[in-house]
Each structure stands twice: as C-alpha cells, then as structure tokens.
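Residues pack. One example:


***
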Amino acid sequence: MSTEPNKKTNSKLGIIIGAATLIVVVALYFVIGYPWPNENVTGTIGGVEKAKKYQKEQITSHDVAVQTSDIQQLLQNDKIQKMINDPSFRTAADNEAFRNEFNRNPAFRNAFLSAAYATAVSNRNFSECLRNESFRNLVARGVVARMISDASLKEALRNESLRQELAGRNYEAAINRNMALRQLSDDASFKEAMKNESFRELFTSDGMRELLNDSQFTEAFRSEACMTIYANANFQEALRQESFRNAAVSAGFTQVLRNEALKDAWNNDAFRTDVFRTEAQRNEVSRTEANRNTEAQRNIQK
C-alpha cells in the first residue's frame, strides 16, 4: 500500500502548524507591546505593499508563514513602519555592496543582528574613528582587534609625553622606545598608517585612549560577530562612503536590525527583497499596484 498521500498530508500539516505557531507568537507580541493597526492603514515596507504581493518561483513553508495576514499586519504597524523607513536605515539599505552581502551571506547578516555589533558602534569614539581611512584599513585587516587586546599598548598611550611624540614628526623614534609600539609597527598597514599625520593625531587622541580602555567596546569588538562584519570586503567598500558610515553606526540602523519582532523575518528572502528595494523599484511597484486597483474598480463597475 502506497504511503505517498500520507507524506503529502504530513508535509501540508507541518506547514499549517508552523504558520499557526508564528501567528500566535506575533499576536502575543502585539497584545503585549504594540497596538493593532487600523484596518484602513495602507502603510508599506518602504512604500511597497506587504508580503501578499511577493512573487517567487518556489514557495517554501517559511514563505507561507510570512505571507499570513498576521505578518502583514505586523509590517503595517506604524511603529515598525517608522523604524524601517528611518533615514539612516534607508541610507544603509540603499548601498548596493552592503545590501548584496546582507542578502547573500547569513553569517554576515546574523553578525549585524547581534548585540556585539550594537555595542561596538554605540561608542561615539569608534564612530569618529571610522571617518579615518587609515583606521578603517586597520580594522579591515584585524590590526585594531590586536590593538584593543594589547594591555601594554593601552598603558603606553596613557603616557602624555609619549603621545605627544607619536603625534609629531619624530614618531618613529617614539615607536622604537616602546616595546608594544615596536611590535605593532611590524604590521605593514600600521606602519603605513603612521605616515599619515591625521592618523597619528587620531591614534594619540583622548578619544582613542578612551576607546581602548572601554571594556564593553573591546569585548564586543573582539567578538566573532564584529570580526565577521569588519573583515568583509563588501562592508569595507561600503564604509568608504561617508553617508553609509554615518548610517551604519546610527541608533536608527541598529534599532531596525535588532527589533525583536523583525529578527526572524530578516532571514526570509522575500522580506529582505521588499525592504531593500530601491526608491525607483518601490515607485514602480506602487504604480503597478495603483494600475491594478484602477483596473479592478473598472471591472466591478462593469
């Protein structure tokens, strides 16, 4: 006797149970923390209609769950909409290098969703350091991770006279007198960076000293999550743009990424596709939807 019908039945049952479970979780979330949106709300993800309009060649069980009415109502909630449309988030999301990597690489995506990333970028000194190209290069090569782990380097930068020498033209002599600095200068990228006057000023600044002494920052930055982000070539490319740098360290950006109601949805292809549409794509989808509504209205009148 064939068991094929039973397999199909079990598969459908599994999808239904999964969707139902997600509906309950989302419903509880709204009951506890958020008001349900008005039935007339027409808010969109970045101006685009919700999950019911996703079109994919192959629909998975997770997609079925995302397309439920409760998920659509979640995405229509005014607070969720406000976060998704935060200017800093939209700026970062519109960066092609970042967007492609976030969509393609689950490890990279999960790193951004981590508490470690939010902790690291919340340090104002780190945000300021990212404006310096030499510093960004050291971050990308993992040199900064070594720097913040070196207690002797932190001790050296507490010495005011040494810091003044390092900031000046005779910085090489100052490096040679300090073991921690000599070891650091063995790295070609650090040695090259020290030739840059603006980097020397940054390296010897009060902000840098505070950064290296901030245990919360150093613990977060040494994490695998942060290293995954900053070692990524596409992220490094994105950081070269000031608008993206400002967005990537903003409170709005991290708030959207780490929102508990959205974290699971980030792993859904259709959800990310909609959120990361460009302005032109969103406008096109809006026009298409308007045309469909107009045509539907005409048919009704007939």
Residues 24-68 have pLDDT under 50 and may be disordered. The radius of gyration is 25 Å.
